[in-house]
Amino acid sequence: MDIKMVVEVSGDDGIDKMIANLKALDGTEVEAGLFGGFAKNKAVWNEYGTSRGIPARPFLRNTLYGNEARFAQFVTPFVEDILNGASVGVYASNLGNFMVSRIRQTIDEGNFVPLAPSTVAKKGHSKPLIDTGDMYGSIDWRAN
């Protein structure tokens, strides 16, 4: 796959604008996951498992490992836009929302250790990581 990048530089200040745009991007981090409250605790217990019998169901790590190339491909078109003056905030928002959707997709696919029969009976279904929807609904993104 070829990636074509077109960057418009006009006038003497074109390079200066590009440098300013890159500086705005430099150090920007976009994270997706669960950032607080009881939902964050449930996410940690499910991600790594517990000594009380909850097996690891690594939905965050699986999303990262399975989508690293997709995340990079998703960002590529925005680099050109940012060099040409687009807002870094738009880039962060688009990437953050994409990352959240991929985490939810990983949960929806349900490729995890099956639930115990007693848990299935209690919940009324056999879908791991979905109970009240609190944890699923708390998945969010942030930019630093």
Descriptive labels:
single chain; 144 residues; mainly alpha; two-stranded antiparallel sheet; 2 strands; elongated; disordered N terminus
How would you sum up this structure in a few lines?
By secondary structure, the chain is mainly alpha-helical.
What's the SSE pattern?
HEHHHHHE
What does the radius of gyration come to? Answer: 20 Å
* E-strand count: 2
- Helix tally equals 6
Helix content: 55-70%
Query: How would the global form be characterised?
Result: elongated
Largest sheet: 2 strands, antiparallel
Q: How large a portion of the residues is in β-strands, by DSSP E? A: 5-15%
Instruction: Give the distance, in angstroms, between the N- and C-terminal Cα atoms.
Output: 31 Å
Helix and strand content put the structural class at mainly alpha
Q: Mean pLDDT, as a whole number?
A: 84
- Which parts are unreliable, with pLDDT below 50 for 5 consecutive residues or more? 1-11
Q: Strands of the biggest beta sheet: in what spatial order? A: 1-2
Structure description:
It is a single chain. This protein has 6 helices and 2 strands. It has 144 residues and is mainly alpha-helical. It has a two-stranded antiparallel sheet with strand order 1-2. The two termini are 31 Å apart. Residues 1-11 have low confidence and may be disordered.
